[in-house]
């Protein structure tokens, strides 16, 4: 099942063309201060063509929502960025580190699974070495894997080698 | 009495278990009917997984929610990321019949069904609106004379269209919960700014995340506080492990980081070691000594 929208749907659904390029978004962006992300320019790019999907700055957004909260035109900027990211991901444009995190989820049901050092910390605190999550429930982990397979998640993220 | 199931997520049990321990202590002491949400998975993390594929994000989030629906309990989160993911997914599925049907067709593969019968809560808004500052004041056994820099984090409050909390730009909910414990919440520039970790930035673009963190820590440093208090293990990790990374580059801050559950547990008479403040990545021994001194007073 195709999980990503088209760029036209993103433009329509999130009011991208209402942008008047005022720059409140980039003035509110904590990432823009430190990295090459320019939200104002990115919104314009999304509104113009498909090329936005390969813009590296898409992945510099921390999703803090400052821009979306303050946009005087009510554009759902972060939601639009997330949707464009999903188009990119469906076209295979996923950063290597993100692919690794996706593999952890598929293997363990956790993006950050337990390790020996933290089992030790848990026991120091008097907790069970494994938490009550999927880590202690293999049947639940099986369900998570079935669900990921049903969504075709492994195909989208390139799966495990 | 409201019944809740505690959603642990990934970072609390697997990286900062002191927060798990402290949260249990707090819920128990406040007389809340709670249990852990057994068999839960990653929420899944919104920045990475929602970015890749919304149907997968909704399917996994809804599985976690249906576990709690079966128990007829609201989900309590202790992480802004888990809250953002589960609360936003819950609302989307409640409000959009097409997405709900699509998600339920995935869930049918594992014999589950999303009904939309419960809510997702964040510990800060839950304590504030369901328990109340007054009840907390009556329950704690000691005041903590600490100057703290509060960090709300982003997804507790935003997107505001999906949140019950009042103000995004100038909230006071968290400040009130901290000050009732005897702490002073010190104002500082960029208090409402992001820690830098979210949106998958920490996982793939660590240097960008760290630059945002360094900016924020610089503002906190100027406020001359005893510690940072947050209510999100991802922010916790970004400030804690981030300070270790920054120290390696020669930028030393030395500002301890604690989750609100840990702070509240200290007010309930527990020691810093009981709730794992000594288990942060950065050395917190001076801070633990200070807390143990306070305990004697």
Automatic annotation (TrEMBL), chain A:
> According to the UniProt entry, where is the signal peptide?
none
Is RNA-binding included in the keywords of this UniProt record? no
Q: Which GO terms describe its biological process?
A: methanogenesis
Return the EC number. 1.8.98.1
Its pathway?
Answer: Cofactor metabolism; coenzyme M-coenzyme B heterodisulfide reduction; coenzyme B and coenzyme M from coenzyme M-coenzyme B heterodisulfide: step 1/1
- One GO molecular-function annotation for this sequence? CoB--CoM heterodisulfide reductase activity
Task: State the top-level EC class.
Answer: oxidoreductase
Q: Where is the 4Fe-4S ferredoxin-type domain?
A: 8-40, 49-81
Q: Gene3D superfamilies given for it?
A: Alpha-helical ferredoxin
Question: Which keywords annotate this record?
Answer: 4Fe-4S, Iron, Iron-sulfur, Metal-binding, Methanogenesis, Oxidoreductase
Any one GO CC term of the record: plasma membrane
Q: Per the record, a Pfam family?
A: Fer4_8
Q: Give the family per the record.
A: Belongs to the HdrC family.
> Which NCBIfam families does the annotation name?
CoB_CoM_SS_C
- State the protein's name: CoB--CoM heterodisulfide reductase subunit C
Query: Which species is the source of this protein?
Result: Methanohalophilus mahii (strain ATCC 35705 / DSM 5219 / SLP)
Lineage of origin: Archaea, Methanobacteriati, Methanobacteriota, Stenosarchaea group, Methanomicrobia
From TrEMBL, chain B:
Provide the GO MF annotations for this entry: 4 iron, 4 sulfur cluster binding; CoB--CoM heterodisulfide reductase activity; metal ion binding
Domain Cysteine-rich positions = 5-86, 148-240
InterPro entries the UniProt entry points to: CoB/CoM_hetero-S_Rdtase_bsu, Cys_rich_dom, HdrB/HdrD_reductase
Pathway(s) where this gene product acts: Cofactor metabolism; coenzyme M-coenzyme B heterodisulfide reduction; coenzyme B and coenzyme M from coenzyme M-coenzyme B heterodisulfide: step 1/1
Q: Which residues form the signal peptide?
A: none
**GO annotation terms (biological process):** methanogenesis
Pfam families in alphabetical order: CCG
Which cofactor is essential here?
[4Fe-4S] cluster
UniProt keyword Metal-binding, yes or no? yes
Q: Which UniProt keywords apply?
A: 4Fe-4S, Iron, Iron-sulfur, Metal-binding, Methanogenesis, Oxidoreductase
Family the entry assigns = Belongs to the HdrB family.
Q: What PANTHER family does the record tag this protein with?
A: COB--COM HETERODISULFIDE REDUCTASE SUBUNIT B 1 (PTHR42947:SF1)
- This protein is called what? CoB--CoM heterodisulfide reductase subunit B
Q: Which organism is it from?
A: Methanohalophilus mahii (strain ATCC 35705 / DSM 5219 / SLP)
């Amino acid at each position: 099942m195709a999980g990503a929208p088209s760029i036209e749907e993103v433009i329509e659904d999130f009011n991208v063309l209402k942008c008047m390029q005022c720059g409140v978004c980039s003035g509110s962006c904590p990432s823009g201060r430190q990295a090459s992300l320019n939200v104002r320019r990115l919104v314009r790019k999304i509104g113009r063509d498909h090329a936005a999907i390969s813009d590296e700055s898409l992945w510099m957004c921390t999703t803090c929502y400052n821009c979306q909260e303050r946009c005087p035109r009510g554009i759902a900027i972060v939601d639009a960025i997330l949707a464009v990211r999903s188009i990119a991901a469906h076209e295979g444009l996923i950063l290597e580190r993100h692919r690794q995190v996706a593999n952890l989820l598929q293997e363990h049901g956790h993006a950050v699974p337990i390790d020996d050092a933290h089992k030790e910390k848990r026991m120091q605190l008097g907790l069970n070495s494994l938490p009550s999550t999927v880590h202690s429930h293999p049947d639940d982990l099986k369900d998570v894997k079935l669900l990921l397979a049903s969504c075709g998640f492994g195909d989208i993220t390139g799966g495990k080698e | 009495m409201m019944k809740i199931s505690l959603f642990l997520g990934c970072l609390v049990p697997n990286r900062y278990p002191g927060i798990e321990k402290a949260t249990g202590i707090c819920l128990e002491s406040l007389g809340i009917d709670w249990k852990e949400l057994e068999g839960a998975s990653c929420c899944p993390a919104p920045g990475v997984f929602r970015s890749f594929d919304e149907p997968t994000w909704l399917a996994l989030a809804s599985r976690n929610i249906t576990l709690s629906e079966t128990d007829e309990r609201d989900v309590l989160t202790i992480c802004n990321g888990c809250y953002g993911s589960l609360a936003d997914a819950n609302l989307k599925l409640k409000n959009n019949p097409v997405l709900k049907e699509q998600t339920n067709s995935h869930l049918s593969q594992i014999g589950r069904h999303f009904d939309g019968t419960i809510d997702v809560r964040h510990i800060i808004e839950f304590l504030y609106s369901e328990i109340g500052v007054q009840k907390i004041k009556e329950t704690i056994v000691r005041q903590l004379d600490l100057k703290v820099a509060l960090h709300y984090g982003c997804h507790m409050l935003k997107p505001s269209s999906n949140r019950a909390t009042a103000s995004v730009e100038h909230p006071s909910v968290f400040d009130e919960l901290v000050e009732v414990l005897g702490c002073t919440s010190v104002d500082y520039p960029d208090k409402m700014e992001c820690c830098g970790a979210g949106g998958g930035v920490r996982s793939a673009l660590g240097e960008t995340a760290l630059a945002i963190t360094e900016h924020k820590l610089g503002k906190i440093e100027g406020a001359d506080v005893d510690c940072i208090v947050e209510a999100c293990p991802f922010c916790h990790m970004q400030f804690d492990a981030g300070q270790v990374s920054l120290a390696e580059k020669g930028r030393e801050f030395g500002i301890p980081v604690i989750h609100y559950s840990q702070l509240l547990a200290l007010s309930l008479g527990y020691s810093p070691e009981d709730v794992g403040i000594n288990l942060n990545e950065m050395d917190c021994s001076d801070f633990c000594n200070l807390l143990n001194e306070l305990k004697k007073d």
